[in-house]
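In response to reviewer comment 3 from the previous cycle, which asked for concrete evidence that the modeling workflow produces usable outputs, we include below a single protein chain processed end to end. The sequence was submitted unchanged, and the resulting structure tokens are shown without manual editing.
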Amino acid sequence: MKHKVTVVGAGNVGATVAQRIVEKELADVALIDILEGVPQGKSLDMMESAPIEKFDAKMTGGNSYEISAGSDVVVITAGIPRKPGMSRDDLVATNEGIVSDVVKKVLPGSPNAILVVVSNPLDAMCEVARRVSRLPRERVFGMAGVLDSARMRWFIAEALQVSVENTHAFVLGGHGDTMVPLPRFSTVAGIPLPQLLSKEKIEAIVKRTRDGGAEIVNLLKTSAWYAPASAVVEMVDAVLRDKKKILPCAAYLQGEYGMRDVYLGVPVKLGSGGVEQIVEIALTPEETVALEKSADAVRELFRILKV
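The workflow returned the following structure tokens.
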């Protein structure tokens, strides 16, 4: 059965997500944006590359949600990007309205879709999508930990001069300044990171991981898009192909890790049903405190939501 994915937002992240999905032939893609001509033009340009890149998946661009009908997965990237000096909190007021509008327009034509939220601030926008859609928590989750872990994996590979394929990293918590990288669960070819790097070097990697988004914003003067897009596509792939893959995602907790009524980055099993299981691991007292601090920061954003 051929799958269909809608990507809402034809900016850098959304367009790159759409590109990678069709190039991997995971699904046909509907690319939607409010800017007239932009999703149409990017889709046409993409399809004109198909004979060279050798893929037969189709991308269709439009300003109307009619083209999204029958989607298995909806990826929400719409919203204003973070600018230099702007915190994720600053984005709440504007992006809350945008994400709410997207959910209201996309679900009537795709009532069985799984929603993957990418818009920032991520954890708060997941909550907006959940409240507006009224879908079960399994079908509304966010891209966070896959990106944060990928950044940490690259920093580890760079520090040790090893293949990125040998690295595994573990990041919990909110997507932002309070994320909780866990070096003791991070490995290189199965070897725990603390056995390979000094405490000082590990702390530097943890800090750079936590500041990863801001580092790129300061360089590009806008948000990252290549790594975020790759992270989204890995999640979409796990859902469409029912891979039961353990990935760190922003999931709505209902008692797990001692938390309730909050979106937080945790390891989950992703399959055709969305978040099919939340994997709980034993944390040290220090890690638990850090995770609770992260949850408190997310709840602060929840308190200013208007939906």
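The chain has a mean pLDDT of 94. We consider this sufficient to address the reviewer's concern, and the full set will be provided in the supplementary archive.
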